Amino acid sequence: MLFLAVFCGFLAENFREHQVEKARAKQYVMSLYEDLRADTTRLNLIIDRDDEKISGFKSIMGCYDTVLRNLQSTSCMGVLIKYSKTSYNFSLNDRTLRQLANAGGFRLLQKEDADSILGYESQYKNYQNFESTLFQSSQDHVRYTLNELADFKVNAPLQNFALKGIDTMSGKLQGSLLFTDNKVLLNKWFNELALYLRAINGQRNLLDQLKDKATGLLQYYKTKHHFE
After folding, report:
1. H-helix segments, the chain
2. Of 86, 81, 76, whose CA–CA distance to 49 is shortest?
3. How far is CA 176 from each of CA 71, 104, 183, 219, rounded to the nearest angstrom?
């Protein structure tokens, strides 16, 4: 009888532990679901900004021809500077991933749940590597060359300096931009802009893939775990 009582107590304790771990796993998955919803909101915002930048660069060829014909006709460069001076980067909402990693929580998840989120994290790391290397370096080159080309007083308002009475977001130049008549340097800037545009398109494609992955995971968790 004593053995039976101990054995039953052991089974009851195992059952309670199993129920606690099951509840914790459910909480983790729900938290992951909320993180993914936040991610898709941010991804949509950045994708829209990239689309706007890509559209803004449609004038690059015509602008090049205009400026090469007349170095004083630089007004079209303002829009190109506007869309090359800043970038919007995506950061994964990793609060739950950090909790899972630090607390050994992945063992509580069902294999398909754990594998799906780890695949999403891996895809994000690919994007992060692209953004921190090729994308960032291409934008830096554009900025550095512009600093050699541009008249400070004309360029400064475009760089979000708080100058009274000047709209820093319109891309409108307050005079002729070029400080030098060096056409080789000017040509270099336009070449770097073209490479930066390729990088934006590359970033846009990676963000689309991340968004598709996040959206698929949301639907997967919603269906499997009956989330609203």
Report:
1. 2-56, 60-69, 77-82, 95-103, 111-130, 136-149, 152-155, 183-225
2. 86
3. 8, 60, 15, 53
Q: CA 176 from chain center: how many Å?
A: 34
Q: Can you tell me whether residue 42 is helix, strand or coil?
A: helix
Alpha carbon 175 to its chain's center: 34
Q: Which helix (H) or strand (E) holds 170?
A: none
Beta bridge partners of 178: 150
**Please, are residues 26 and 225 in contact by the beta-carbon 8 Å criterion?**
yes
Query: Helix or strand or coil: residue 150?
Result: strand
- Please tell me the distance from the alpha carbon of residue 166 to that of residue 58, in angstroms, as a whole number: 25
- Is residue 202 within 8 A of residue 134, CB to CB? The reply is yes
pTM for this model (two decimals): 0.82
Residues 36-80 pLDDT 10s: 999 999 999 999 999 999 999 999 999 999 999 999 999 999 999
